[in-house]
Specification:
Elements (H helix, E strand, L loop, with lengths): L9 E10 L3 E10 L15
Amino acid sequence: MNGEVWLPKNIGIVGSLRVLLVKGFHIDQDTAYSNYKKFTAESRIVE
Protein backbone atom coordinates (compact mmCIF):
# COMPACT_ATOMS: atom_id res chain seq x y z
CA MET A 1 0.00 0.00 0.00
CA ASN A 2 1.55 3.33 -1.09
CA GLY A 3 4.86 1.55 -1.69
CA GLU A 4 5.22 0.77 2.03
CA VAL A 5 5.90 -2.47 3.89
CA TRP A 6 3.42 -3.35 6.62
CA LEU A 7 4.62 -5.47 9.56
CA PRO A 8 2.59 -7.32 12.22
CA LYS A 9 1.88 -5.81 15.61
CA ASN A 10 0.77 -9.00 17.33
CA ILE A 11 0.80 -12.74 16.50
CA GLY A 12 -1.15 -15.32 18.48
CA ILE A 13 -0.89 -19.11 18.19
CA VAL A 14 -3.17 -21.59 19.93
CA GLY A 15 -3.08 -25.33 19.34
CA SER A 16 -3.17 -28.74 20.90
CA LEU A 17 -1.80 -32.13 19.88
CA ARG A 18 -2.25 -35.67 21.13
CA VAL A 19 0.35 -38.31 20.29
CA LEU A 20 -0.87 -41.93 20.12
CA LEU A 21 -3.72 -41.09 22.53
CA VAL A 22 -1.14 -41.05 25.35
CA LYS A 23 0.70 -37.75 25.56
CA GLY A 24 -1.03 -34.41 25.04
CA PHE A 25 0.48 -31.02 24.31
CA HIS A 26 -1.11 -27.58 24.44
CA ILE A 27 0.41 -24.40 22.98
CA ASP A 28 -0.82 -20.88 23.72
CA GLN A 29 1.70 -18.28 22.56
CA ASP A 30 1.33 -14.54 22.06
CA THR A 31 4.12 -12.46 20.55
CA ALA A 32 3.95 -8.66 20.39
CA TYR A 33 6.15 -6.42 18.24
CA SER A 34 6.68 -2.72 18.86
CA ASN A 35 8.98 0.25 18.38
CA TYR A 36 8.98 0.09 14.59
CA LYS A 37 10.81 2.92 12.84
CA LYS A 38 9.69 4.35 9.51
CA PHE A 39 12.49 4.97 7.04
CA THR A 40 12.96 5.52 3.32
CA ALA A 41 15.35 3.84 0.93
CA GLU A 42 16.08 4.14 -2.75
CA SER A 43 17.07 1.39 -5.14
CA ARG A 44 17.79 1.07 -8.83
CA ILE A 45 18.36 -1.79 -11.25
CA VAL A 46 21.81 -1.84 -12.88
CA GLU A 47 22.11 -3.91 -16.03
